[in-house]
């Protein structure tokens, strides 16, 4: 598939490599995600969902197998190149919003652009305002995260994930600590951006109701793909 | 909050260093100035007379008695004076004839040092005009200048007469044209200035001088100049640094202890900054992880903490300099000389502030190094999870 945003082949991950307590948590995962695809990653806890997401998000390196992001094999990339690739092409939404408490919502959304370009500029601010508008928080742009509700914080986090128009959004239980109504909102927001920007989304969720609304559901059990439909 | 605390610590540290440095520099300069205010920087004297054995026979058991040192003239002193004046770093040369005498008035007599000088030239060695309490510093004919203690002891006022008698039987009636107070009772009691020719004839040294006094541009070059002159003339040449070896040792020891204090203060401030940053790295783990997930490189995280350390140092040095300035003002108002004038000036040399700022910023940077590296090395996943 030429337009695959991520491609995993025989990917394995072990912890404590080389020690007597070496444990393999992912046992050869083959998975690819096409541009614009909106997939749910489900599975019982401890099945390796978060580890897989971290590896795809280039926060961790796989022990074996191949991982390509946007057609580039990541195995040969240096630490600095990995960091740059992560910043440019991947947006994260965490379960706990993980906004920087010292900065306003607007500054948080500008942060990826500031990191990528080294300094805040008008373009970053304009984009950030536009994104905050899109998530319905333009009026709260100058509030600190602590002054926002859980749903609002998560919206800011989504806006931040989209700041650099990444080709891939990775969400680790983005609605995990929200009530169902707010969770639906957040989910709808992700879906909307997915359609608008044609970015691929991979969402870890425990909520079968939400998973059912994705294009595709990848099920992970004990570090293996159990179902992909 | 921690940043405030460590900023306060840095401020205190810088203030102590700047204050101490400024204070000690000023006090040392004053002490040196005061000591050298009454003595020449370099003195050229004739070689001491020594007995030489005609035959140096090791088997001889002869006992050599050391010779009594007569008052003698510096050989060809005009040539030596010209040579000294031409030496780089020497700013003034003054020939002096000095020898023991008694000042006699009525039934009282006091032992004094007769100083034959050329007033114009001597002024450039010791700034006598600044010490005059009566009359002028000028000698002429039998007109003399004496110290305030001698004047008091012999009940002499300006224009009064005074007889000097010498061990060789010569004597002369002098008229007091000036009275000085040099700030040293012993010298105020002993120095009697007369003209060079008068002293020469009284001391039986016609045309000769007993020593040449020199002033040099940089007082700490005195020893080097003295050694060069000794090499060139073969005479005895002493610098103030030799004659005041104790003072010099005291100044050096003070500088050493000052450096020691400064080093420890710097060390403590550095440890303070480092420990606060270590704690802050641990506290900010999550934020570091988030920034890394958003594409911030290790180098960027490293920079953030290094800059924080440098900023603490830089801002601390600004506040510290201000505090030091305040302290200097306060202490200069409290500590005063016997005459009520401030012991030291409440001023801060800009170079100390610049130096303190540079050192503090450097120390801040250096102490941030270990915490910053820790932050940069942090695994983003671990950081976010914690």
Written account of the structure:
The complex is a heterodimer of chains A (229) and B (386). Chain A has 7 helices and 10 strands. By secondary structure, chain A is an alpha/beta fold. Chain A has a single domain, classed as Rossmann fold, CATH 3.40.50.300. The radius of gyration of chain B is 32 Å and the shape is elongated. In chain B, a hairpin with a 5-residue loop joins strand 6 and strand 7. With 386 residues, chain B is of the alpha+beta class. Chain B is 53% helix and 18% strand. Chain B has 2 domains: 172 residues, no CATH class; 119 residues, Barwin-like endoglucanases (Beta Barrel). The model of chain B has no long low-confidence stretch (mean pLDDT 86). Chain B starts with a helix and ends with a helix. In chain B, helix 1 packs antiparallel against helix 9, helix 1 packs across helix 11 and helix 1 runs antiparallel to helix 12. The interface between A and B is medium-sized, with 23 and 17 residues.
Give me a quick take on this structure.
The complex is a heterodimer of chains A (229) and B (386). Chain A has 229 residues and is an alpha/beta fold. Chain A has helices at 49-56, 79-89, 105-117, 122-134, 150-161, 180-197, 208-212, and strands at 4-15, 23-34, 38-42, 64-69, 72-73, 90-93, 168-172, 200-204, 216-221, 224-228.
Number of folding domains of chain A? Answer: 1
Order of helices and strands of chain A: EEEHEEHEHHHEHEHEE
Going by CATH, the homologous superfamily of chain A would be P-loop containing nucleotide triphosphate hydrolases
- List low-confidence stretches of chain B: none
Give the proportion of residues in helices of chain A. Answer: 25-40%
Residues in β-strands, percent of chain A: 25-35%
SSE layout and pairings?
The complex is a heterodimer of chains A (229) and B (386).
Chain A: E1 4-15, E2 23-34, E3 38-42, H1 49-56, E4 64-69, E5 72-73, H2 79-89, E6 90-93, H3 105-117, H4 122-134, H5 150-161, E7 168-172, H6 180-197, E8 200-204, H7 208-212, E9 216-221, E10 224-228
Parallel strand pairs in A: 3-8, 3-9, 6-7, 7-8
Antiparallel strand pairs in A: 1-2, 1-4, 4-5, 9-10
Helix pairs in contact in A: 3-4, 3-5, 4-5, 5-6
Chain B: H1 2-36, E1 42-45, H2 77-86, E2 90-105, E3 108-117, H3 119-122, E4 132-135, E5 143-147, H4 148-153, E6 161-165, E7 171-180, H5 185-190, E8 191-195, H6 196-202, E9 211-216, H7 222-233, E10 236-239, H8 240-243, H9 245-283, H10 285-293, H11 298-334, H12 350-377, H13 380-385
Parallel strand pairs in B: 3-8, 5-7
Antiparallel strand pairs in B: 1-9, 1-10, 2-3, 2-6, 2-9, 4-7, 5-8, 6-7
Helix pairs in contact in B: 1-9, 1-11, 1-12, 9-11, 9-12, 11-12
């Amino acid at each position: 598939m030429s337009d695959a945003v991520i491609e995993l082949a025989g990917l394995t991950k072990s912890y404590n490599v080389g020690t007597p307590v070496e444990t393999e948590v992912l046992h050869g995962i083959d998975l690819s995600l096409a541009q614009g695809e909106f997939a749910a990653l489900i599975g019982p806890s401890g099945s390796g969902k978060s580890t897989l997401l971290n590896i795809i998000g280039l926060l961790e390196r796989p022990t074996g197998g191949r991982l390509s992001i946007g057609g580039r094999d990541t195995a040969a990339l240096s630490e600095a190149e990995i960091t740059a690739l992560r910043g440019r092409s991947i947006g994260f939404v965490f379960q706990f919003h993980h906004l920087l408490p010292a900065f306003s919502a607007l500054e948080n959304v500008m942060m990826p652009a500031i990191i990528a370009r080294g300094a805040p500029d008008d373009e970053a601010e304009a984009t950030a305002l536009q994104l905050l508008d899109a998530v319905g928080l333009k009026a709260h742009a100058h509030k600190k995260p602590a002054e926002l509700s859980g749903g609002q914080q998560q919206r800011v986090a989504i806006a931040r994930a989209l700041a650099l128009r990444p080709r891939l959004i990775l969400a680790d239980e983005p609605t995990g600590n929200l009530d169902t109504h707010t969770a639906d909102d957040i989910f709808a927001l992700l879906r909307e951006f997915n359609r608008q920007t044609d970015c691929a989304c991979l969402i870890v969720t425990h909520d079968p109701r939400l998973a059912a609304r994705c294009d595709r559901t990848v099920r992970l059990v004990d570090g293996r793909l159990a179902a992909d439909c | 909050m921690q940043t405030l605390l460590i900023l306060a610590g840095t401020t205190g540290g810088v203030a102590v260093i700047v204050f101490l440095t400024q204070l000690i520099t000023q006090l040392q300069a004053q002490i040196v100035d005061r000591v050298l205010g009454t003595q020449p920087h370099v003195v050229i004297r004739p070689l001491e007379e020594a007995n030489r054995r005609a035959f140096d026979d090791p088997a001889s058991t002869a006992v050599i008695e050391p010779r009594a040192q007569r008052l003698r003239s510096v050989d060809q002193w005009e040539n030596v004076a010209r040579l000294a004046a031409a030496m780089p770093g020497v700013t003034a040369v003054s020939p002096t004839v000095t020898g023991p005498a008694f000042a006699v008035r009525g039934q009282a007599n006091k032992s004094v040092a007769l100083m034959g000088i050329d007033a114009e030239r001597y002024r450039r060695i010791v700034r006598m005009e600044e010490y005059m309490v009566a009359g002028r510093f000028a000698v002429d004919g039998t007109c003399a200048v004496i110290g305030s203690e001698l004047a008091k002891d012999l009940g002499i006022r300006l224009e009064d007469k005074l007889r000097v008698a010498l061990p060789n039987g010569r004597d002369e009636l002098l008229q007091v044209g000036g009275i000085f107070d040099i700030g040293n009772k012993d010298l105020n009691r002993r120095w009697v200035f007369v003209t060079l020719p008068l002293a020469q004839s009284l001391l039986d040294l016609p045309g000769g001088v007993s020593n040449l006094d020199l002033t040099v541009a940089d007082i700490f070059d005195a020893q080097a100049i003295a050694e060069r002159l000794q090499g060139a003339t073969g005479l005895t040449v002493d610098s103030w640094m030799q004659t005041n070896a104790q003072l010099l040792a005291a100044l050096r020891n003070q500088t050493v202890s000052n450096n020691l204090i400064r080093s420890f203060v710097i060390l403590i401030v550095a440890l303070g900054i480092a420990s606060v940053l270590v704690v802050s790295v641990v506290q900010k783990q999550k934020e570091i992880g988030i920034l890394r997930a958003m594409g911030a490189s290790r180098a960027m995280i490293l920079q953030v903490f290094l800059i924080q350390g440098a900023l603490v140092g830089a801002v601390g040095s600004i506040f510290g300099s201000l505090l030091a300035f305040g302290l200097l003002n306060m202490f200069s108002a409290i500590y005063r000389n016997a005459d009520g004038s401030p012991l030291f000036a409440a001023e801060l040399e800009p170079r100390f502030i610049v130096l303190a700022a540079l050192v503090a910023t450097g120390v801040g940077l250096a102490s941030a190094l270990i915490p910053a590296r820790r932050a940069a090395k942090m695994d983003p996943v671990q950081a976010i999870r914690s």
